[in-house]
Amino acid sequence: MESLRITLDQSEIPTHWYNVVADLPTPPLPPLAADGEPVSPEQMGAIFPAAIIEQEMSGERWIPIPEPVREVYRLWRPSPLIRARRLEELLATPARIYYKYEGVSPAGSHKPNTAVAQAFYNQQAGIKRITTETGAGQWGCSMAFAGQMFGLDVRVYMVKVSFQQKPYRRSMMQTWGAEVFASPSPMTQTGRDLLASDPDNQGSLGIAISEAVEDAAGRADTSYALGSVLNHVALHQTIIGQEAKKQFEKVADWPDVIFAPCGGGSSFAGLAFPFIADNAAGGRNGRPTRLVAVEPTSCPTLTRGAYAYDFGDASGFTPLMKMYTLGHDFMPPGIHAGGLRYHGDSPLVSQLYHEGLIEAVAVAQLATFEAGVMFSRAEGIIPAPESNHALRAAIDEALRCKRSGEAKTILVNLTGHGHFDMAAYDRYFAGELDDFEYPAEAIRASLENLPKVG
Ligand SMILES: *Cc1c(COP(=O)(O)O)cnc(C)c1O
Q1: What's the pLDDT at 1?
Q2: Among residues 25, 295, 380, 420, which is most buried (max CB within 10 A)?
Q3: DSSP for 41-85?
Q4: Could you give the count of Cα atoms lying within 13 Å of 291 in the half-sphere of its Cβ?
Q5: In the prediction, which pLDDT does 335 show?
Q6: Given a cut of 70, is residue 330 above it in pLDDT?
Q7: How far is the C-alpha of 265 from the C-alpha of 392, rounded, in Å?
Q8: Whose CA is nearest to atom 9 of ligand 1?
Q9: In whole angstroms, what is the distance from residue 78 CA to residue 255 CA?
């Protein structure tokens, strides 16, 4: 009988991460400091350990995964690849739909793949304490869990709107021993300034990053950890795509198209980047696998942003990165896919998009919940609202296949479960959610404040 769940042995967990930089047509542009010069490793040393900085700047194709990291990965990896037979039947599509399910991790998403690696390298460097930010709470939970695995204290600045909407994510972080503050908070100068001008500021990922970086830069025993965007984060996530490739080999199938949600781009990178190497050689189906990043219409970074140098945070603490951006003071509306509310995008994902090697599409909120509910009823798993974006695009593709009669193989990145997002599902069922198309005028206004470079 055909197995729906394609599993691997623990011994088949990849031994190396894949660095897409080695296969880029042109070298990546460096991050720039405030003076317009490339950021030096010494400057990055104020907030990151040396091993992470080395990975951030590396051009090596394969980077070994340290054994203590693989050992923690073994708590939930390899993650399953599942054929969505019931969804295919429901849609009456000739397409084959598979999903790679990252919700099996302790924190319920793909994010521990990098949190565990970052905690390990910080512990090795003698760091005692990590500060970070979190939007929906997924990253904060992942870092809190990973901190416990390697004996580090963790402080999380949590975007205020999520702090209020997702109290159980905060409890999870506290259960894993982390301190959690609603951002903007009174703990940093950035937070105090913002609260002085608007005590009801709902926060944003950019603001929370500013607070965490300010905190880490002020203490020698403290590093900062970022859950997305940066090259080393994308690198650590490539375990997802490498496992998926082995799983497809087992069933002698290969994706024609991959859909992944895209906020800061790390889970997209994780699943898609390992296929770039095959695409460069023409692809295994006689054509390249299409790699599609799916974002919300309310925060349309790739599809409507500018490709420019911009800050990673709201107040300009971080280096400037060349990326697709909506402007660092862009204020996304309080949509429920908190993990997708970021003004920028991974520089590597941005470069691949700019060079036409990947695609992007934006989908509206209501249609994503419709897809998530359909998927839950067919397949059982209740997806995170972020994952619903990829599901929406995949279902639309499967319906196109139905019209054209093409039996394409579709792969979805099911980046997490939605067990802590049920308030959002409740609001969807109650008809209280809206679609929001960011007004072109507001995007133009925000892009006018891009820093001037060169
Ligand atoms: C954080 C998150 C995302 C988006 O972040 P990326 O860095 O773009 O991957 C997607 N899905 C889930 C479940 C998340 O927690």
Answers
A1: 55
A2: 295
A3: HHHHTTTS-HHHHHHHH---SEEEPPHHHHHHHTTTPSPPEEE-H
A4: 27
A5: 63
A6: yes
A7: 18
A8: 267
A9: 19
Out of 111, 294, 389, mutate this one to test ligand 1's pocket (max ligand atoms within 8 Å of CB): namely: 111
Q: Is the CB of 263 under 6 A from ligand 1?
A: yes
Atom number in ligand 1 closest to CA 228: 7
pLDDT tops 90 at residue 313: no
Closest CA to 80 of 409, 391, 413: 413
For ligand 1, whether the C-beta of 386 sits within 6 Å is yes
Which has the higher per-residue pLDDT, 329 or 393? 393
Whether pLDDT at 360 is above 60: yes
List strands edge to edge, sheet with 222-224.
179-183, 153-159, 129-134, 222-224
* Distance from Cα 326 to the centre of ligand 1, integer Å: 18
For residues 207-227, average pLDDT: 93
Q: Is the pLDDT of residue 173 over 70?
A: yes
| Cβ of residue 297 lying under 6 Å from some atom of ligand 1 | no
pLDDT tens-place string over residues 124-144: 999 999 999 998 899 999 999
**CA 7 to centroid of ligand 1, rounded, Å:** 23
240 close to 102: Cβ distance less than 8 angstroms: yes
Under the phi-then-psi rule, with left for phi > 0, alpha for psi from -120 to 50, and beta for the rest, what region is 327?
A: left
Q: How far apart are the first and last CA of the chain?
A: 62
Question: For a pocket test of ligand 1, which of 156, 158, 415, 417 has the largest count of ligand atoms closer than 8 A to its C-beta?
Answer: 415
DSSP state of 19: -
Residue 99 in this model has a pLDDT that exceeds 60:
yes
Domains of the chain (ranges; CATH) run 4-10+76-108+238-447 (3.40.50.1100), 16-65+111-231 (3.40.50.1100)
- Please return the burial class of 61, using the count of CB atoms within 10 Å of its CB with bins 0-12, 13-18 and 19+: middle
Residue 170 or residue 316, greater confidence: 170
Cβ-proximal residues to 10 (8 Å cutoff; 6+ apart), any chain: 74, 77, 78
* Across 189-198, average pLDDT: 96
For the stretch 407-426, pLDDT in tens is 999 999 999 999 999 999 99
Distance 318 CA to ligand 1 centre (A): 21
